[in-house]
Amino acid sequence: QVQLVESGGGLVQAGGSLRLSCAASGSIVRINVMGWYRQAPGNERELVASITNFGVTNYADSVKGRFTISRDNAKNTVYLQMNSLEPEDTAVYYCNIENGLISRRTYWGQGTQVTVSS
């Protein structure tokens, strides 16, 4: 099993910044893709950003230019730097990783609340 521990959420005013962290531990073989998703009330969970083990990144159009995803492979940790936050960014943010080589499995964090006030 792999455990994911998220931190860094909170309440911030519009235009502010937050940095989310997600540390993986346990039966780690090789972490391939690491990503952040979010889910606002009444909405489906959506991809915010992802990063491969080669450092290739992908962002939702709504966060391009404002959010930056990065990872520290030595620490099995993924980060999401969120700048110029907007009220529309309010959601529960979930960390997601894919672990394994031939047999791969995905894991989810418990979620961290991000609230942006106007």
What would you say this structure looks like, in words?
- It is a single chain.
- The chain is mainly β and 118 residues long.
- It contains no helices and eleven strands.
- The strands form two sheets. Strands 2, 4, 5, 6, 9, 10 and 11 form a seven-stranded mixed beta sheet that branches. Strands 1-3-8-7 form a four-stranded antiparallel beta sheet, with no helix packed on it.
- A hairpin with a 5-residue loop joins β5 and β6.
- The chain is globular.
- The chain starts with a strand and ends with a strand.
- The mean pLDDT is 96.
Entry summary:
Helix content is 0%, strand content 59%. With 118 residues, it is mostly beta strands.
Helical stretch tally: 0
Q: What's the total number of strands?
A: 11
Q: How far is the first residue's CA from the last residue's CA? A: 40 Å
Fraction in beta strands: over 45%
- Characterize the biggest β-sheet: 7 strands, mixed
Summed over residues and divided by their number, the pLDDT gives a mean of 96
Helix content estimate: under 10%
Query: What are the secondary-structure elements, in order, as H or E?
Result: EEEEEEEEEEE
Uncertain segments are none
Q: What overall geometry do the principal axes of the alpha carbons give?
A: globular
Q: Rg from C-alpha positions?
A: 14 Å
Structural class: mainly beta
